[in-house]
Amino acid sequence: MSNNIFRRFKWPLIIIIGALLGYAFLKSYQSDLNTNLNVEARNASAAGASYGMQNDQQGCMDKVLRDIQGCNGFACGVVHGRFIKACLDEAQPSADFCEKVPRFTEKKDRHTKEWLRDICFEHPETNTCYLVRRQQQQMCSS
User: Fold this and answer.
1) 95-118 average pLDDT score
2) If we measure between CA atoms, which residue out of 131, 141, 142 comes closest to residue 61?
3) How far apart are CA 79 and CA 75, in angstroms?
4) CA distance 137 to 131
């Protein structure tokens, strides 16, 4: 009788066990990924602050725009966003850095959307470009 029950529920049990193992593996992988991203973000902040102490605001922006080439993923955006924020916080002001930069608002207004579209036009990494330019916009508005 018990052998008959095992045969009857063999595949559902195998599927359930496989799903549980897969879920445990995925959670472990996600945890490692988040830990690695946090380390990379902290390192990017430190590197940005160091670079900013030796360069002006435009130098920070030029470097990050070179570095984002080929980068359009979420993690890449986080890392470069942390770099530019720390860099701009430490950098010496640049004469024309805030010229034509619209005031920062939480929700992008029409003028901001047009500015981002125009300034990031030549960057295939549009989302990452938007992110670093929003950092510029926020810094210029404070």
Assistant:
1) 91
2) 131
3) 6
4) 10
State the average pLDDT over residues 65-93: 90
DSSP 109: -
pLDDT at 41: 87
CB 113 within 8 A of CB 127: no
The Cα 63–Cα 69 span in angstroms is 11
* Total domains in the fold of the chain: 1
| Residue pLDDT, tens place only, 26-59 | 766 665 556 777 888 899 999 999 999 999 999 9
Contact 41, 91 (CB under 8 A): no
Q: Which are the contacts of 42, defined by CB distance < 8 A and separation ≥ 6?
A: 82
DSSP state of 97: T
Its pTM stands at: 0.73
φ, ψ of residue 56 to 5 degrees: the values are: -95, 180
How many residues in total does the chain contain? 142
Structure tokens at 117: 């579209």
Range of the structural domain that residue 28 is part of = 2-141
3-state secondary structure of 103: coil
Place of tokens 């830990």: 35
pLDDT at 141 over 60: yes
